[in-house]
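for the record, two folds in this file. i put them one after another cuz i was lazy. first one right below, seq on top, structure tokens after. the second one comes after a little note so u can tell where it starts
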Amino acid sequence: MSRNIYQELWDLDIQPENNGCTVTSRGPDGEWINPDADIKLDEQKELSSRGGDDAPNPLIAEFNAEKLNGKTYLALKALMNNYVFNARQSEDHLGDNSVEDAEIETFLDEILNTAVMKMAFDYIKDDLGESVEAMEFRAVTKRLWFDIYTNYYNNNPVPFSSGFEHIVVGESKSNPSDRGIGGYHSWLKYLYDQESGRVNFNGYNYDNKLGDSSPQGASVPHVATISMTYEPLDMDGQPMGRKRKDMGGFFVGPSPECQIAMPVVAYYESINGQFFVGSGTTAREQTEKKVEIHDAVYHLVLYLETREDQTRGDRLRSFFPKFLRLKDGFSSVTDPDNIQGDIAIVSMLANPIGSEEGKEWVEIENRTEEIINLDGYQFIDHKNRPEPLSMDIEPGKRLRIMVSRSTPDSMQLTNSGGTVSIIDSTGSLISKVTYPKSSNGELLYFS
């Protein structure tokens, strides 16, 4: 079985002696699952309409500022002001090019001395069989990320392109009048812009089906696929007007060296025929690779420059994750007969590992803008056995309710599947979901 180098790089990155950040999201009770994590990611609400803003709070609720003082973080941040947002303008006039060139060399010095980049280098040599030495590896990394080139995708030449500018910094679309954002696939750039008040989080958007809940991606803290509004600055440091991206994604937590290493590995895999989906025979299939990282399955997307003759070049154009689904052991359930009211049933564990008593649970969400008191509400299973509810639930919040099985006539979740309903104090049906047979420890999600 081939190595999952991307997971290995991430695992190494978050070791205490290295620079990666641990990440957590909120649990069903609204509290942080891991209060000690470096990054607390708050994805809140799904984008409901184009141009809308469904998230009242910042995406990154808290972060460990000490991490940002690491050498590779500071070296990356120093590169940010070397680029202009307009994709068709040259960066040459921004300052002393010798200073900017030195900043690139300093950044390469710092990242190439890390354990993560050394693992990537060893994988490229030992597993892919590339006869590359350290100096050549440095040169290739620099070329991929920092060379300036003209991109000829679809015969539409865009001069002054570079991998770092597009992937990390972000830039305007190739049409200067377009109000969209190209690239911008770095959580660190997002954090810096959030701290300076130049970016606003509008809500998560994993499937681009607005208003059709996609809770799977939002349950994974290591990735964010979001809608955002951004205010870039022009060459004189003045605001250029607000730009918007309704669907853009990035991994959350990797150090600068890990963010650089993954696309470099992907490039070497691509030239060795090991980066593709399907049969790998079409150009589109050769731009993606399915990988498992942490709890999820992704397509990593690798775009290289397009030369004037429309062949692929050897410099980066873009790299980002495309969330596909949760890994095996997690499931999402869509049933046209499900009913989701103001108090919705969003997930459950019907078949816990080991003893089931006291371990089954159902997670609910308040989809209104008001606090709802659940006194007199009940869960009802497919045999009309009740589980009383008695608590307040805040607007937009989720609660995980443990199934008590307090009497033989109390509600039970079954391994073979069934239904769970919520009725209010008058007996009116609020929500109802049908759930399938599930394996040990399998989480079920409902839209």
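(here's the note) second protein begins now
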Amino acid sequence: MSSPDDIAESAGAGWHPDVPITVPAPLLWPPRPMKVLEYLFGFPGLYFPWLALYALIALGLWLLLQLLHADFTRILAGWPLLLLACNGLIAAAFYSAWHYRLYSRRAQGTRFKYNPRWPKEHDHRFLFAQQTRSNVFWAMGSGVPIASAYMILTLWAQAIGIAPVTTWRSSPVYCTVLMLALVFFHAVHFYVFHRLLHIKVLYDRVHYLHHQNINPGPWSGLAMHPVEHLLYFSGALLLWVIPATPLHVLYFVTLVALAPAEGHCGFGKMMLGQSSLTTDGYYHYLHHKFFRVNFGDPLLIPLDRLFGTFHDGTRRVPGVLDTRQK
């Protein structure tokens, strides 16, 4: 964590991190091993605190299911409803905590906010003419049930032998590596299906709903059309073809379901007393602002560069105009 006073704000245009945006440590050449370790395991870093928290949530779900002796071969038993209820409570609590602190309470005002303006109280583009209510509706009414369905069906497929299974006891190294690698798979999967959704026919009928959020907040992250939710969580199908444990299933779906809160919070840092906790949303914020740039995670900057869609934060990309900003 760093002191808020260490970072300058751009007067009149909202806060932004140091620009131009550069590739993260794992992509540096020549390799810098210490930088990579700091990027992965530092605090804050790739795995801490958020991915570690998602892993703990997944472990809690697994222990609860074990305590209740859930029989995953019986998909019509009570455990699917329990998982749906737990996922709903977890998502509601997690996204609400982000929203309450940054937008309802406005605990740090616009300090470190990318867009210095707050979302409009009334906006006809959204369901119920209100951004947050619309986003909550789509996140909880579509996102949570579809995420839960992937989780439940994958656990069931493992239990009846459709999906390959391993154990932590028999393959501890493999299971650990898979746990660490799933976030990288998610980044690639997100990039591929996200580019697909920007094909005009899919954008006009599906992805437009997510892009209503020009000035995003935490709930914007999971506010998607049901078809987009089906694509977004479909990365779980990887665990139908490679050996995994139920904990990997619970962790991956939890990661995919909760990570958008941080990525769409609209702030570069969350102030905690005299210090601040860095978030990782500016790269994607530029996508919401400029629409045709930065389709993936910063880890995939080379792909955005390859296809001419990389925006480094300096607004010097030819042909890219801020035409969607209101």
